[in-house]
Design a protein that fits this description.
Elements lengths: L1 H6 L6 H7 L4 H29 L3 H30 L5 H12 L4 E13 L2 E10 L5 H18 L3 E8 L9
Parallel strand pairs: 2-3
Antiparallel strand pairs: 1-2
C-alpha cells in the first residue's frame, strides 16, 4: 500500500491508478490486500450474524460473499491487465508528445502513421511513418532521423525502441 501511495499521483483516484498502471504487480497486490480486508469483514459479519441468530446459514452467506468478491477482483484484474499481456499502446499524452517531437524538427513535413506499444512497464516501442523534406539526401535524412529519435526520447524516456520510416504522404491509396 505504501509503495502504491508513493507512485500514485495525488490528483489521481485509486481506480484510475489501477486502470492506468503499467506495472501489474502494484494493482494486483493492492486489490489482493483490499480483497483480503473486505473478505475478513464479510467472514466476521457472517459468523457474528450466525452466532446471534442461531442460524448457520449466515456463515454460508459470508463464505459465498467472499467467493463472489474474489471472482469480481479476478475478473477486474483480468480485464485491466490483459492490455499489458497482449501489448498496450502508450498514453494519449505520450503519443501527443511523440508526435510533437517529430513535428518540431524543421525537416519534418507530416506524420503519416504513428503506433506505440508497451513491451514492458519501462520499454515503449514507437513505429512511425514520416514525410520529410523531399530535398534531403540519404545521408542528411539519416542524420535527421537520429535527431528525431533524440527529441522523442527527451519527451518520452521510456521510448527505447524507435523505428522511423521515411515515406511520402498520398492523398489516395494506390492499389
Amino acid at each position: 500500500m505504501k509503495e502504491a501511495q508513493r507512485i500514485k499521483p495525488k490528483s489521481q483516484s485509486w481506480l484510475k491508478f489501477i486502470k492506468s498502471a503499467k506495472q501489474p504487480e502494484l494493482p494486483v497486490v493492492l486489490l489482493e490486500d483490499v480483497g483480503a480486508e473486505i473478505g475478513l469483514l464479510l467472514a466476521l459479519g457472517g459468523v457474528i450474524t450466525a452466532h446471534y441468530t442461531h442460524n448457520p446459514r449466515w456463515d454460508a452467506v459470508g463464505s459465498i460473499s467472499i467467493g463472489v468478491l474474489l471472482i469480481i477482483i479476478a475478473a477486474f484484474l483480468a480485464i485491466e491487465m490483459k492490455g499489458l499481456l497482449i501489448g498496450e499502446s502508450a498514453l494519449d499524452s505520450e503519443v501527443a508528445s511523440i508526435r510533437t517531437a517529430i513535428l518540431s524538427h524543421h525537416a519534418t513535413k507530416n506524420v503519416i502513421h504513428l503506433r506505440t506499444e508497451h513491451l514492458s512497464p519501462d520499454d515503449l516501442l514507437v513505429a512511425t511513418k514520416v514525410e520529410f523534406d523531399h530535398s534531403l539526401s540519404v545521408h542528411e535524412l539519416s542524420k535527421v532521423i537520429d535527431e528525431i529519435e533524440v527529441l522523442i526520447r527527451a519527451q518520452v524516456p521510456s521510448a527505447h525502441f524507435i523505428f522511423i520510416e521515411p515515406d511520402i504522404a498520398h492523398s489516395t491509396i494506390l492499389n
